[in-house]
Known about the structure:
By secondary structure, chain A is of the alpha/beta class.
Amino acid sequence: MKWTRKDLVALSDLSAEEISFVLDTASEFKDVGRRRLKKVPSLRGKTMVNLFVEASTRTRTSFELAGVRLSADVVNIAAQTSSLSKGETLKDTAKNLEALAADLIVLRHSAAGAAHFLAGRLRAGVINAGDGSHEHPTQGLLDVFTIRERLGRVAGVKVGIVGDIRFSRVARSNLQALVKLGARVTLIGPPTLVPREFERLGAVITHSLDDVLGDLDVINLLRIQHERQKAGFFPGTGEYAALFGLNAARAGRLKPEALVMHPGPIHRGVELDGSVADGPHSVILDQVTNGLAVRMAVLYLCGSVPPKEEA
Amino acid sequence: MSRTGTDRELADRVALEAAIGRLADEIAAALGGAGPVFLAGIPTRGVSLAARLATRLERRGVACRRGAVDISMYRDDLGLREGVSALQGTDLPMDIDHWDVILVDDVQHTGRTARAAIEAVLAFGRPRRILYAVLVDRGGRELPVRPDFIGINLPVGPGRRVRVRLAETDDGAEGVYES
């Protein structure tokens, strides 16, 4: 196949073949990171704007480094310093960036659908770096990349995703990619945070981590946000950790080759204990390295597709 | 890449074999029989040709290693083509310094592929020399990049396509075809 998308908005848009195509491309870009010269000229002369309307350090840094390694000129705009804080609409901000000849816009926004909205209105390529509770496609891709690299396959792999599924764009993007590539996904967490609707997307739901722990090939622990506790979705971090935290005792019941994943930043002692995060099952730092390769692949592919004629 | 009825044969299997033999002779002579040399095939057919050349060079007493150099990330026409093709994989030694590297491709046309390949190789280090071998030179250079070794000259006008068919990668009889 050939890649023909100028945008990456959601993994729900992509076929299994397209997802595998991005993963294969990312493999090659991971190799680039091992060369003496870690930079390729693919996006030389192109301008990429990191438009982060919602704060983020790690995703923004990863995209920034990916753009730099592809030789793009990279500009960062944070919400606090942009005209969006003066009341300019997202579309006007983006149109202004396009008037400055931006070729790629990487958008992080608190509203679901923000990337989709811009993608349909701009000639520039739009990469979703997280839109509200909707999707975080590059995180989904890098998680699946890490599983495929470590276990050699995705089809048939038993993946447990633990925590705040309801509000998690990471969970949604993971679920999309994993189900399309044939993994068996179990969503785990308190009923308030793991709604039954997710069964329709192809997942199995359980509210007991201990029931399924020993059967998993991969356990992906999502970050628990304190706002959720304040809103009453779970009683307290202590109780959450007791029921759903991956402590040393639980980690001892994992299969020997099972992978422990976390999108970061980790709350040690809540989602998982420090000894587990640093232990033999953990691939958390692989995820960071692979995130760079996956983002290079996505920017390379979308940035190499000719722009739309008129939006 | 399906064959059409309009394909015209420019060289048959025997002529193609002879061209590969000539390339091996020229390379062996230029290297003074010494080596070692690294044959970097440009995918897809350059990789197969590098393998065939390596066999012949070993027979002539030249020590060879071989690999591949994918030029996709170094192209000068990204964003001008409809759709992005899959990357094909690069396999070059990490200790490329002090090697003689020979780029191997099937058809020399504009010179843009060779330029990109030179840049790709230099990302791995500083080889002693980079040389360039093509099976077919069809003419039509757009950059000042000239092969060091040419198997066969088959000048063809602009707007035509020259394709090499090899058993490893293609259906049909081996040879060089114009379409």
